[in-house]
Amino acid sequence: MSPLILPLADQNAILETVGGKGMSLAKLSRAGLPVPGGFHVTTEAYRRFVADNGLQPRILEALKGADATQPTSLDTASGQISRLFADAPIPEEIAAAISAAYAGLKDAPVAVRSSATAEDLPEASFAGQQDTYLNITGEVAVLEAVKRCWASLWTARAIGYRLKNGIDQQSVALAVIVQELVPADAAGVLFTANPLNGRRDQVVINAAWGLGEAVVSGTVTPDTITVDKPSGHTLQRETAAKQVMTVRTEMGTREQLVPDSKKNMPVLSDGQVSELRRYGMQIEALYEAPMDIEWVLADGKFAILQARPITALPELQVKPATEWKLPDPKGLYMRASLIEQLPEPLTPLFSTLSGPIIEEATRRLFATMSGGKGLKRELSLFATINGYGYMNVNFGLWNTVRIGVGQMVKMNWIFKQSRSRWQQAHEHYLEVIRRWGAKPLGECTSVELLDGPRALFAETMEIYTVLQTGPIATALGSETMFNQFYNRLIKKKGDPDGSTFVMGFESMPIQAEQFLYDLAEWAQGRGKLAAHLTATPAAQLATELESADPPVGLDAGEWSEWQRRFREHLSKYGHFTYDLDFSKAVAADDPAPLLEACRMYLLGKAGSPYARVKALADRREQAAGAMLKRLHGPIRSIFNRQLLSAQKYAPMREDGLSDLGLGYPLLRRMLRELGRRLVQAGVLEQPEDVFWLNEQEAVEAAGVLDRERFPASMKATVRDRRTVWKAEQRLSPPVVLPVGSRYMGMDVEKLTSGGLTDDANVIKGFGSSQGKVTATARVLLGPEDFNQMRPGDVLVAPITTPAWTPLFTMASAIVTDIGGPLSHSSIVAREYGIPAVLGTGSATRLIHSGQTITVDGTLGKVTINPDERAGK
User: Fold this and answer.
1) Is 575:666 a contact under the CB 8 Å cutoff?
2) I need a labelling partner for 452 at 20 to 30 A (CA). Which of 6, 244, 387, 399 fits?
3) pTM of the model
4) pLDDT digit string (tens) for 116-144?
5) Among residues 600, 585, 584, 581, which one has the least CA distance to residue 513?
């Protein structure tokens, strides 16, 4: 069972246990920033209070009439819930725990602050939704303030905000922070980026006399100081005539007039401004984002009360490029093939370390398919343009003809050798992993920690080239031949679509999903374990997974078996990539998305993957049986032969693509070990920063470490590159460059992407799995968003890979920015019998979570509800 109280800086103070504000304060405190002492009353205490008093059913009953568009209904629901909380006693165990923690503060005056599990996040502006009580003294008063904070989770404003933003009212909980109250002489807010013009190189400070409530609430016009962040030079000072200030009283706080002697006096000296700037820069580096920071000043010393990312900042100072300059003016650059596995801007280490390997693998592929003669070295094939990966496919007419003829000549070889070549590449990849994994990381030199990832990624590319001349080619070829034969010579009105005959096979991603389902079924029969798994947030379960000791109240044997079974899943399938850029975690690093999927199964919110596959397999067999019964003679024989070929190769493509990340768990461990050493040497701020170095920088730093010297700091460089990367992330990279290019008489862009139509509410793409669904859109950019998915949502994503398969069980339809008829999204959507529209180009930017959209997989279009679009 989770603890009721946590020390302020405790490592277990995560979002699920202490809410957004509490998590932030814990992070600040652990980083050594001047945060007032105190403790957390965790969400477990809130849930126990609600459960012991039987409040949850009555809360849900009160919410039935709540309508975000009707303020009166929100007030009514809030009033009813507030009375429930006021009348409910705090259970004795919880009260005793709070009282004991408060006694540790020696009965000092405290601030009692609410901290919700859905507040102070980068994508949600929840600030001010719940209550804060200042200058609370005494055990009874503290307990009462805690209960009033709990009740403030259900203010009319908070209820309405959650309704408007599609946040599950049942999933939220509230933690409470109890901190020593700083007797502030002055207080205010510090912005580490200019909130008026968005400039990241400026710090803006608001300051007023007394406690900070007058600044936050807007009842006083504060001093405003604008500072150049790099130099610390004050650019502008506006000293306001400050009329009121918030001060402490015996019973709490009140506002009073500012003494005449202070009304027009600057609150902060130049030295204090400089000190605040340094704190701001330290906090911004800690969070890797522009921050909104609340501070107080008492007896000449600063204290930090709160820090949260700025959620609404004007255009960044670092503007993404608008010109897509080509490395080779004669090149034709496309985001296709391997690049479909790289939907976001590339991190510097991936781009520079992996780029040459991708280049060489592509040359080997071309040589294989064109009869052994490779491309000229002066023709560069892989490029990073405005941060995004592209392949140059302008080989010239003669080379294009050679590869086309070569494919036709080698087609029989491709089909016959497809499986054996892939299996050989698979075994070789495993051997390379075993060889590099045999040596403990601590015994590797820093240079070896780079050599290993090079070797492992080279195997990733080797297996990808084998897939392109094996399972991918055979799956595409066999299914295309079958469909052409079937559609032209056999299909009649009312007959099933050709894809029906190649659905219902258990590829590796679906087997991984079935394994999770089986695991959930096993846990379902173990009451306490199942209850713990369903009630505990996935991130916390991921932490518990590493502990040898079971959570309180659970059987040690059952917990050990649960760990063994889940680790077996990770051992088999934890290498599936979400994104081929190795800076992105795989499930073996971060199992939280898989644990969330397991919870959905336990809660009964996701259907059985077995049932879905069986239904499609039955449909496939019925369709094939009916067709074979209807056909006769040679045409029946040809149909059956082509059908068996398509069915044989259909699952191989997904099985093969699942191999791409085989070495990624080890590869990432090696690079993060190098990052850890660079952190110890003062070069980086955290191990993950190693991915933001380019290869040459990493090589030089590793060499210096091996000579037992200290490389130069790269902290500022890494921060700048992250800022540029986030700016590039807002771009919509063209599928083909130059835009509008024609290749061998064809409009390449029309063949490779969708986009907006003449109707601004309609987005076109490739209809790769038939059907039509109208449902709520859920835009997920990566595994960190998986917990937002709800059963019946339309999954809208940049691209999906085998690691995304757990979400398909919950999805009613699929929409992606990137992908074509034989992409992972297409194949698994068909396996699960849900509509899919792929290759829209910009669905994740044009569609917003919570909107109602219609996905037509037959026509290849997505329609946004026009009323919701107009209301944005």
Assistant:
1) no
2) 387
3) 0.62
4) 886 433 333 344 456 788 889 999 999 99
5) 600
